[in-house]
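Journal club prep, shared notes

We agreed each person brings one worked example of a sequence with its structure written out as tokens. Mine is Heat shock protein DnaJ. I'm keeping it raw so we can talk through how to read the token line rather than staring at a rendered picture. Sequence first:
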Amino acid sequence: MKNYYDILEVPKDASAAVIRKAYLRKSLKYHPDKNPNNLEESKAKFIEIGEANETLSDPTKRRIYD
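Then the structure, token by token:
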């Protein structure tokens, strides 16, 4: 399993605002609509970014993950 902090490129003590900003930046970069020539890899990366954000932005899920 990949490290969600590494996926979003944030430190382990990142605030919710930093996590959200990183999520938005990465999701725009890897959105499948922005990468039609590399669709499969973009979809996989986009899903991974979403999972990382979902876990790290929820205090309960983040506490369990940590």
